[in-house]
Amino acid sequence: MNKKLAVHPIVEREEEIEAQGLLVFEDMHRFPLYDEPYTSSYLSICLNISGWSSGEYDMRPVRLEPHDIMVLMPGRITCAHESSTDYRCLCIVMSPAFQEELKRRMSGLYRENCRFDYHHNIHLSDAQFETALCSLRLIRDVSQSDSPLRLEMLCSLIQVLFQLFMDFRRQNGMEEHRPSPREELFCSFYQAVENNYRKSREVKFYADLLCMTPKHFSTVIKTHTGISAIEWINSYVTIQAKSMLRHQPQLNVQQIAQQMGFPDQATFSRYFKNNTGLSPSEFRDSNK
Length: 288
Fold this sequence. Notes:
Oligomer: single chain
Number of helices: 13
Strand content: 15-25%
């Protein structure tokens, strides 16, 4: 099994991803962190070539087998647990700016494939796998070109890829997914946490934002996901704090507390220790 590794190809090439908009990692065999939840601002499409990997996506278990393809949406909580020694996948990684360009050019199709995370992953037939692999490799080739039409070609190819996903689901007997009212509520709640976690970490704030009583809101979230609303909030906030402590060594704990929206360092430290068992400084020292 792969062990937790501090540096990952995506992390190493973050500046390049931001500059280029889209990069293809053709021989990825590990994840940024093992047994540590994290979020990413990138939209990623992963095609499993060989081996298997297991983990959680939005706190639900997921396992990828050969010929599985999965869309990882930005901002979602991901946690990789383990993978086989022969695990290998081809992964497209898209920056936030490139995502905005996709939304502008193909808003309807983009929204449809944003719902792909409800399915977690699709298992492809041999023929579907070869089609997907050829499409991803073509995207790789175009991404490496210096053509003045690079952006236009990449957006068109991603549009074709998203359409293929919809065709694959239909061919494999997967009914078109229409989110239920509870799913819509959870998505609104999750987006609200992403946008407001620095402002508030209280259930009542999000219930008020969604025009519900805190009691009813908490019941619906717990019933739909199996996880309470406060657990979702605390998990998201803690992940963001860990990310800053791990990846922004130029900031001290007080500065991170301010950026996270806490009134002072002491309040932030208590919150962090209550949710992790470690103080911010202890966590930072353990990751050096």
